[in-house]
Write a structure and sequence with these properties.
single chain, 7 strands, 246 residues, binds NADP nicotinamide-adenine-dinucleotide phosphate, globular, Rossmann fold
């Protein structure tokens, strides 16, 4: 695809789906700003992406960090054509043992962080720009051990509609991409290797395509929403092998 002269911001762009998206856009000629909390992850990603990538460290749950991100992006790019609100954590815990700290952390990053990422960067969005919120197909499922994560992602799916209404007068579209199980390593961060292996085997068994998706498959869906889906706003593109549809 051709993304020449396009500027994009990808939160959580140093790894997984966000990195695959950054690579897709840079390979197509775009300039991207990637964010995340780990400087080492960002440095490695920046190295692989080359000089059309800018790495900006920050926590999406911190409003001062989001203000700093906005200033830096303004200085680097001036305006942006696509904003990918992709940063997130996927902590899964049994309902009974879920702590207040875990609840607050999930909502602070996945929900509050997403909302204020859009609010802070909105002034930089050009006419015709696309915003893509990364939710999850679990926003429409009742999966064990995911009640807090899924509720946060359902909030994001809802926000795609409301923010689409808010930004419509500016000619900005807002949509949601909802991945199913994608093998990015996020599970291994959030649970033991043994639990991750068991969780993965279950997800493959109950998926109509009998496989995980790839980060690149989600990257292409997100890029489509941001750049090509010019008559689509407030919508959700589910990319999950059909598990919530068939
Ligand atoms: N993989 C799946 O099966 C799956 C399924 C459905 C939805 N998703 C969603 O897809 C998105 C990408 O996940 P992924 O699978 O690609 O996992 P990943 O590789 O862990 O990517 C998540 C990224 O978000 C960043 N991040 C996390 N917390 C942050 C914070 N507070 N501030 C800034 N950056 C933060 C992480 O970097 P740092 O840790 O360095 O901050 C990381 O680069 C997430 O929103 C996830 O919920 C994933």
């Amino acid at each position: 695809m051709n993304y020449i002269d396009k500027n994009a911001v990808i939160t959580g762009g140093g790894s997984g789906v966000g990195f695959a998206l950054a690579k897709l856009l840079v390979d197509g000629g775009a300039r991207v700003a990637i964010t995340g909390r780990s400087q080492a992850t960002l440095d490695a990603a920046r190295e692989r992406l080359g000089e059309n990538a800018v790495a900006i460290r920050g926590d999406v749950a911190s409003l001062p960090d989001l203000d700093a991100l906005t200033e830096r992006v303004k200085g680097e790019f001036g305006t942006i054509d696509a904003l990918f609100v992709n940063a997130g954590i996927a902590t899964v815990t049994p309902f009974e043992s879920t702590t207040e700290e875990l609840y607050d952390e999930l909502f602070a990053i996945n929900v509050k962080g997403a909302f204020f990422t859009v609010q802070k960067l909105a002034p930089l969005l050009s006419t015709g720009a696309g915003v893509v919120l990364t939710t999850s197909n679990v926003n429409a499922m009742g999966m064990l051990d995911t009640s807090v994560y899924a509720a946060g992602k359902a909030a994001l799916r809802s926000m795609a509609r409301s923010l689409a209404r808010e930004l419509l007068p500016r000619g900005v579209r807002v949509n949601a991409v909802s991945p199913g199980p994608i093998d990015t390593g996020i599970l291994e961060i959030m649970m033991t290797a043994e639990a991750a292996a068991r969780f993965k085997a279950e997800r493959v068994a109950d998926n109509p395509m009998r496989r995980f998706g790839t980060p690149d498959e989600i990257a292409r869906a997100a890029a489509f929403l941001a750049f090509d889906a010019t008559y689509t706003t407030g919508a959700e593109l589910v990319a999950d092998g059909g598990v919530t549809q068939l």
